[in-house]
Design a protein that fits this description.
The protein is built from 27 helices and 13 strands. By secondary structure, the chain is α+β, with helices and mostly antiparallel strands. The strands form 4 sheets. Strands 8, 9, 10, 11 and 12 form a 5-stranded antiparallel β-sheet that branches. Strand 10 and strand 11 form a beta hairpin. The chain starts with a helix and ends with a helix. Residues about 690-700, about 735 and about 755-764 have low confidence and may be disordered.
């Protein structure tokens, strides 16, 4: 099947390229129609109280999409005009400020303290306006409405709240994301141009991989929407983790070209020869990403599916589209040949093998401290910390903290049938909880000075709907802090004592749930990714010991990577270790598999284990260096220019992780495999293959073929000179070489047949 596919690709490269280009059109349309979700909290499980509370706020009160406007240095008439203009917008359900209750300004002394403490700043220079939207907080309709409100607001006004932060984040991502992809492509191109022997070949590779990225991002349309994290890093990750496949194919193609008369035949052989190994390598990466799908926080499902699909498109494009592009650009590629800068690792390999016990001991000694370090790295959960401080919504949040003691806002939902006296007592008790700056409910907004009859229905509907009553609780504690989490527990217990069906939601309770869910998810995904890749490696090598050694080596690289953040005192986003663990394990375990495979091939030729590893390492480490360098260049460049801390930290750790993984393989895995070779032989099926194995016969014969070809070329050249003197038609050297090559190939078949017969006799 693969042979037929390979022949079809190489026989009709123009047709393949035409189809690939045409498929870009629906992919581009799908990409434009795919929504982007900027609300991380929306990925929490639906069965949590905080999630159920948000659903009620959205469905009944539309409070989940509330935004807060800080109005400074404005007259009463100016604030009234602004409120009326905002309320006239289609997606605005209601506006609440002092003008919503009173027709004209009155002395602050006549207003309830709950109102003045919430709607007026301590110095009385600023006033708050609460804006409700009809659509959900992160919907396109709400984000468009916020843009309209910003156009209506005077320069001195600021807008905050979850929806406002989401809007500013969306603008930032839409502006910055194309820059991330561009810098990743440019730096990857430079790295490839330096490490490959042609200036045009890297461009061809990136064109093919770029097509795979577009196919992947376009097919995200079937999910409806993806998270902004996925939108920001998917293209970069896909380029980084699938670059290996194109490099492996090109290396094999270079090996096959001298053996075949046509480039098409050589490429066909390269495709069939590398397909199995490419499929195996891609599976490890796919399993690494699919492990994210088991997170309770469905953000993992979002990233996992998109990236697993990206790897699949990457391998398909490398096997089908890339060969066609290379064949069409072969002449141009040859014209731009140059010397590669990839260094020789022979000296390093000799050194590590000479002192292999020392490096093996260091390998073991690093396990415990690196594991402890990564366990104690500091993490933040509040997404506000991942956004630049200079954007409008974050500046507004700072004003709310300083002038209004509103670091976070909770929403308590209670049964409206509760007795009025109990409601008043509940409001009083909530206000006495330590760290609560203000409490706003239907009863507290009027106090005892006014009758509820003076309230318009639009204001009443903000607090009462569908048999439920909403109470707004403001806290001086920032979300996702220990103080805030303790306060949430106390408020929840207090609400339950009045109404067992009550719910507490908002940023504080949701971030508290996020911390608990994310910490549990990290353990689960880590176990699943390790187990899946362990089983896959065990199947590939038919071994019990090899999976332990390979997975442990990459886990060490991951632990060292995260531990560096701990040693540097960095605080990283909660989702970063989970992504790093799955991605670095799945993407860089290929390095370990490549080295182990080459080691086994050398052993199968009857070579002693030290010499076998020397040869395997000399060959494999060049590919590992090239792959790690390209991955580093693509991700490190994004880290340098990225303003979103979440994306920046992920790219920084991926860049660092690619180099650390390469070093661990070169310095520690190489000598460890040699030391453990005896154990591997006992726990692996057919690990050491005898000298009669076809591989050990084929290699010397191939060397003889090369010698025969060189001799044939010399003879043909001499014959041509004689014929030229005799003015006869020259005999092409290629025909003589082809004939001798065919004769040598026949000898190979006979030798392999004799070897198989010998193996059968030995088994008998």
């Amino acid at each position: 099947m693969i042979n037929k596919l390979a022949r079809g690709i190489t026989s009709h490269p123009k047709t393949v390229i035409l189809i690939a280009v045409l498929l870009l059109i629906p992919s581009a349309i799908g990409f434009l129609l795919t929504g982007v979700n900027y609300d991380i909290l929306s990925y929490l499980p639906d069965d949590l109280d905080s999630s159920q509370g948000i659903a009620i706020l959205d469905d009944s009160f539309n409070e989940a999409s509330m935004s807060i406007i800080v109005m400074s240095d404005m007259t009463w008439d100016e604030m009234t005009e602004l409120g009326d203009n905002i309320e006239a917008l289609d997606n605005v359900r209601g506006v609440l400020w002092l003008g919503s209750v009173l027709e004209s300004p009155i002395p602050m002394s006549m207003l309830p303290e709950s109102v003045t403490s919430m709607l007026y700043s301590a110095d009385g220079d600023s006033t708050l306006m609460l804006v409700q939207f009809r659509a959900s907080g992160a919907s396109e309709e709400t984000l468009n409405t916020i843009s309209e409100i910003k156009d209506l607001m005077p320069e001195q006004c600021l807008m905050s709240g979850t929806s406002a932060v989401t809007y500013d984040l969306s603008v930032l991502v839409e502006t910055e994301a194309p820059k991330y992809v561009a810098i990743a492509i440019v730096l990857a191109l430079i790295a490839l141009a330096l490490t490959m022997d042609s200036f045009i070949l890297p461009i061809v590779l990136l064109i093919a991989l770029g097509m795979a990225v577009i196919y992947n991002m376009g097919t995200n349309f079937m999910f409806g929407e993806i998270s902004f994290i996925t939108q920001s890093i998917a293209a970069i990750l896909q380029l980084g983790v699938t670059m290996d496949y194109s490099v492996f194919l090109m290396d094999r193609y270079s090996e096959e070209k001298p053996k075949y008369r046509t480039h098409a035949a050589a490429m066909s052989k390269a495709i069939t020869s590398t397909f199995t190994s490419l499929a195996g390598s891609s599976l490890t990466t796919i399993f690494g990403f699919l492990a994210l799908c088991f997170m309770s926080l469905t953000l993992g499902l979002d990233i996992g599916l998109v990236m697993a699909k990206g790897v699949l498109f990457g391998i398909i494009t490398v096997v089908i589209v890339l060969p066609a592009l290379i064949l069409q650009c072969e002449k141009l590629i040859d014209k731009t040949r140059h010397k590669s800068i990839v260094p020789s690792f022979r000296g390093l390999n000799k050194f590590t093998l000479k002192f292999k016990p020392v490096f093996a001991v260091i390998f073991v000694l690093l396990l415990v401290p690196s594991w402890i370090g990564q366990q104690n790295v500091s993490k933040y959960y509040n997404m506000m910390d991942a956004i630049p401080d200079d954007i409008d919504s974050i500046q507004a949040l700072d004003v709310l903290k300083e002038d209004f003691n509103m670091a976070s806002t909770y929403f308590a939902i209670i049964d409206d049938s509760m007795d009025s006296s109990e409601k008043l007592q509940l409001l009083s008790d909530l206000g006495e909880v330590e760290g609560v700056s203000s409490v706003l409910g239907l009863n507290s907004i009027l106090g005892t000075a006014f009758s509820q009859d003076i309230l318009p229905d639009s204001v009443k509907s903000i607090f009462v709907a569908d048999g439920k009553q909403m109470i707004m609780v403001n806290s001086v504690y920032s979300p996702a802090t220990d103080e805030c989490n303790a306060q949430v527990d106390e408020l929840t217990a207090l609400l339950k004592s009045y109404d067992s069906s009550s719910l507490l939601t908002g940023e504080g309770p949701m971030y508290k749930d996020l911390i608990e869910v994310a910490d549990r998810d990290f353990i689960i995904t880590n176990i699943i990714s390790i187990a899946a890749i362990f089983v896959l490696i065990a199947i590939i090598f038919k071994s019990i010991s090899i999976p332990f050694i390979l997975v442990l080596s990459i886990e060490l690289a991951i632990w060292i990577n995260v531990s560096i953040s701990y040693l540097m005192g960095e605080e990283i986003c909660f989702i970063t270790p989970t992504i790093i663990s799955c991605v670095q394990l799945g993407a860089t375990v290929d390095y370990a598999i490549l080295l182990t495979t080459r080691f086994r091939e050398e052993l199968s030729r009857g070579t002693k284990k030290k010499q076998a590893m020397q040869a395997a390492a000399d060959s494999a480490h060049k590919s590992i260096f090239q792959s790690a360098l390209v991955f580093f260049a693509a991700t490190f460049g994004v880290y340098l220019i990225c303003d979103i801390d979440l994306v920046s930290s992920i790219c920084a750790m991926l860049a660092r992780g690619s180099i650390i993984s390469a070093l661990v393989i070169m310095l520690f895995l190489t000598p460890t495999l040699v030391i453990c070779e005896g154990l591997i032989n006992k726990t692996t099926v057919n690990w050491r293959v005898g000298k009669n194995h076809p591989t050990s016969i084929t290699s010397p014969l191939l060397e003889k073929i090369e010698e025969q070809i060189k001799k044939a070329e010399k003879k043909a050249a001499k014959l041509q000179k004689k014929q030229e003197k005799a003015k006869a038609k020259p005999v092409p050297a290629e025909l003589v070489a082809d004939k001798l090559t065919d004769e040598a190939a026949l000898e190979i078949e006979k030798a392999m047949s004799r070897s198989e017969q010998s193996d059968d006799e030995n088994e008998d």
